Structures are given as structure tokens and as C-alpha cells.
């Protein structure tokens, strides 16, 4: 299939379908006949750009829809766009919930890199799927660890491993342990108190930093009281909010401000909403699952705060960061500021000056730099 990543970052070497997707589909093809599943018994989780969902529509019989959950809204949008362009139908997007997996007999998924994310998803499946359900989860070997097998064995009777192919591998989980899984489902989301920043942080599995406050965010928060100091701060955006630490902190520090927190991740959005509620600021923090600053009017914001995602692929990291810098510049009012913390070796100051406006260094340590850029 000729799929695109759009609206996610596109560029040379960034593919929409990889060897892991192809291996997952090949291994699943055998099970479709063995289990005699229909579409309403099939669930797809964390399909990157639609390869798994679209690849299952023809082999799986039935007139119902395949249930799909993608944590990233960009993956959801890419699946919809690819399906529309190629003329596919027969799937529906569902949140990570009992509704997603109730009665499922075949669950096909990309394995997350986060063991916490895998634990939360696996527990949801095992607690609500059919007794004979089979989970087929695959990924690139470089992103897989033996601990994934252990996590699955906590809620399934049996875990098998495929042969490797093109640096990819698939895990098969069978025999859901309903009682054990139900208890683990209730353990999410998790909570941690952070007296040093005055917040309780709540997080679902797979959210950046989990229930912690990462060291970059700590450096940023140590100086963020200066944001908007030259004018009344009325509107602020926490762009890529993760667990909602920054959004909740801003709302606590600026009682008259309205804070909008955005993230591509459904797990992050749920976490940020829970963190805002736990800290008594849910009435002034709105959380949206969008890509960047989608839906925010041009020139409407006093301050944007950003801790851009870091990836080992420098080109990908730069592409994502510059997209978020441009979104910040679009929504900031003239004279508004983008406060940003970034890994110092990425040297973003030039890009910030070019895309947003004059940029000054606020703080720096051996690993992170905090800057403030004024919208020209």
C-alpha cells in the first residue's frame, strides 16, 4: 500500500509502512483463518499510519467495523486520510476503554517502547477481551526488550515469540487472566506528589516522564515566574503538555490566567486533565488532543511554554521542534513570548530567532537550555 505519514512529519527516510508492519500482518494472516474471526471481533491498537488497519480490512470478513485505537491524533488523522485516498472503509476510532476491547478475539498492535504503556494496554485487553483472545504485537527489535514478555505474562497465560525478520519481531499473548488484569486496570492512572514544585502529578502509561517531573522541566519551572512579567498574563499555552505539570503550575502561579494544554497523545491529554483536577485548577486549564496549536486563533496568546520532544534521530527532532516553533509564532500576539527548554546540544537558538523572534538565554546547565523568544 502506498501510504503517507501526513499530517505527521514527512521527509527522506521517514516511512509510513515498515518491516514490522509487514511482519505483523503476515503473522496475523494465519490466525484470521484459525480463529475464524469477524471484523467486530478484531481490534487494532497504536497503528502508526494505517498499515495494520487497512491491511486487515480485506482478509477479515464481515460487514461490521474494526475497532481502532491510536494514541497519537496524527496517526488517527493519517489513517483517515490514507483510507479516504485509497477508498477504504470499515473501521472506527475508539478510546482506550473497555468498549474498545470487549469481546475481541484478535488484537493486533504495534508494541509501545514504554513498558508502562504496554502494561496498561495489556491489562485493558486481558480484562475485557474474549477468553480465547490472541494478541499479536510487533515492532522493531531495537525497540523491544525481554521485559515486554514479562509484562504480558503478568496478565496472559502464555507468550510466544516469532522468528526475526528484517530486524523485526512479533509477540503472541494468549489466555487472558481476567481477575489479575482487572486489578491492574484499576491501578491506572498513577499519582506522585512533588512538594518541591507544589504539585501532584498524575499519569497514564507511556506519557513522557510518567508521574515524574523531568530535569528539563524543573529547570524551566525554576525561572518561569519571569514569563509575562512585563504585562498581565491572561492566556497561556502549554504546547505538548505531557502529564500536565507545566499547565498546572502556570494556572497555580497566575490565578487570573486561562491555560490551554495541548498534546497529540490521548494518554497525555487524560493525564494532564487529571493533574489539573488534582491540583484544583481544572476550571482554568483546558486540555485538547490536537497536533501542535491546531484550533488556536492567530495572535491570541500571551505566553507559550514548550519542552519539545527529543528523538535520537536529529533530523526528526529538528523537524518536530521547528513545526512547534512555527505554531508558537502563529498563535502568539506581537510581543508575546515563547518560553522553551531544550537539550543544549540541539542548538535551537538560531531557529527560534528565525522562526519566532529575538531570543535570549534565561538559564543553562550542562544538559538543558531555557530561552525566551519575543514574537516580533
From TrEMBL:
SUPFAM superfamilies: S-adenosyl-L-methionine-dependent methyltransferases (SSF53335)
Any GO molecular function: nucleic acid binding
Any single GO BP term: methylation
Swiss-Prot/TrEMBL keywords: Cytoplasm, Methyltransferase, rRNA processing, Transferase
All residue ranges annotated as the RlmG N-terminal domain in the record: 2-174
Keyword RNA-binding recorded: no
Domain Methyltransferase small: from-to ranges: 199-371
Superkingdom, natural source: Bacteria
One Pfam family cited in the UniProt record for this chain: RLMG_N
Protein name: 16S RNA G1207 methylase RsmC
